[in-house]
């Protein structure tokens, strides 16, 4: 019979989002690695090449969504790991606040960098 | 129908000798996850060199890529990412209740596939760099 074995409490919104972002990241992370290490060699990356990719609206949106999904998935994973480790009370609230601020800052910075890469600023 | 499964406290790493395949998968997934989110912050920091100007960006990327240690770390990153992806697919299957009886075998398969993909990628990752 099925035995549940997961770090996350099932049924919650973040539990579902962790899985939805996982399914998205599996595809886009593999695409990202393949594009920038096999199709284009990382050592040959130039600003012009990056701009040529990023000014494509579909690529830009995919990368921004990739950043948002990756940040949520990673930071939510870290938060859940710490909760599993026994984090609670005020410490738990402080850690959550720090992680949320770090996530928002990372997404804002990354999105700004992507618009600069695309030449839209 | 899901039931609770008492696997003891994995967070007590002193018990590592008693760990089963599924518990190792849990630890490896967590470890690779920490590395990937740490890398994401570093990645955005490096790419932010684009804010200084096109030349600064190109020089930063190509300067880093000319270093042997960076190439070695990239192979490590690939191994970590591939394992996290493959074991993540395994976890999605577990959540859907598919293949629960062979979850230990799928963990070993994740390790073997990760090793094969990583080794096969070494020539591409190390192309054009010397110690």
TrEMBL record, chain A:
Pfam families: Sdh_cyt. Its main location: membrane. The chain crosses the membrane at residues 20-39, 59-82, 94-120. InterPro entries: SQR/QFR_C/D, SuccDH_FuR_B_TM-su. It is found in: Membrane. It comes from the Archaea. GO terms for cellular component: membrane. One of its GO terms (molecular function) is metal ion binding. Keywords: Heme, Iron, Membrane, Metal-binding, Transmembrane, Transmembrane helix. This is Succinate dehydrogenase / fumarate reductase membrane anchor subunit. It comes from Natronorubrum thiooxidans.
From TrEMBL, chain B:
The chain crosses the membrane at residues 21-46, 66-86, 107-126. One of its GO terms (molecular function) is electron transfer activity. One of its GO terms (biological process) is tricarboxylic acid cycle. It comes from Natronorubrum thiooxidans. GO terms for cellular component: membrane. The keyword Signal does not apply. This is Succinate dehydrogenase subunit C. Pfam families: Sdh_cyt. Its main location: membrane. It is found in: Membrane. CDD domains: SQR_TypeA_SdhC_like. It comes from the Archaea. Keywords: Heme, Iron, Membrane, Metal-binding, Transmembrane, Transmembrane helix.
